[in-house]
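[09:14] KT: can someone run the structure on this one? pasting the chain below
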Amino acid sequence: MLNARTVRTWITASLGKEAVKKHMVAVSTNLKLVSEFGIDPDNAFGFWDWVGGRYSVCSAVGMLPLSLQYGFDTMEKFLEGAWNIDEHFATAPFEKNLPVTLGMLSVWNVSFLGCSARAILPYTQALAKLAPHIQQVAMESNGKGVSIDGRRVPRTGPHTAPPLPYDTGEIDFGEPGTNGQHSFYQLIHQGRTIPCDFIGIIKSQQSVYLKGEIVSNHDELMCNFFAQADALAVGKTDVELRSENVPTFLIPHKTFTGNRPSLSIMLPALNAYSTGQLLAIYEHRVAVQGFVWGLNSFDQWGVELGKVLASKVRVSMSQKRTTGELEGSSDGFNSSTTAMLNRYLKEKAQLKYAEAEDVFPCDLIDSDECRPPTSYV
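[09:31] RB: done, structure tokens below
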């Protein structure tokens, strides 16, 4: 809420308190707090209080800003795509159910093959933020050391209930196409076994053809899409390398074991509808994993402790700045945190102001491009 209060202060500094009602809207389940904040309740977009942040794209939390950016007609197609997969997940038999199949593959890779990570590799720059988004959806949902009935997974500390006999959760990461190839594919091919999700597009959004070239730019990208999955599956043996007259001393370095798991998803085109489908597939896949592992994929207690401790740091930081003191052992932080906090407080001491006031970056930066809100009066 500090960011919201900052925007409100920036507005009221130039336009007065009444301007908040006309220039700010809210997405909230609590109309009383919306009104107390200064926003007109008629400008509040509601959503169910059980919608977690990572699953909120299809609620007002996601649809409002996305509709402002792309238009509601476009986002309605996105919702239709997501709904299509919702219906598929709810009605398709298990043997033909995409989220079920993908979820069970992940359970197999994690709990049976011992693979602790997964790479999400879209061969399109337009999906550059897919991996970070699914990282939150998956890791916040299934990054649990305790099952829904209180049993602990292996190696997560003391417990009273019998431990679960399998590992859960996975580390998600990824980059678009050839960016990843020149970054971490080396590890994937010849280092740790990391299951991969390859995502390709048949019809390019903006393909380029050059005279004299045998394929388009998009074709070139997709050639890599097909080749990488094939290389992981098949690899290259020392026999093949010898037949190519590779020097003996290089054979161990150029041998690829193959038999490394991956799956490929190929969309007819990347548009609002298919993007909605793709997001829903991953959301339901995460839920399937949680169901099988016996986890509650819809809470996130692991996030809460850091928030509580941050509140404690906030209060202590304010007190020490007011009194001009430093943190001590009696303040309740461990020695490492105490040392870092004191370094921070010492270095920031030079930024003290004569009296409390609202200070924005443009109040300190003198340029035509950055103007303080008071200059607009």
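[09:33] KT: thanks! The chain has a mean pLDDT of 88.
[09:34] RB: yep, looked fine to me
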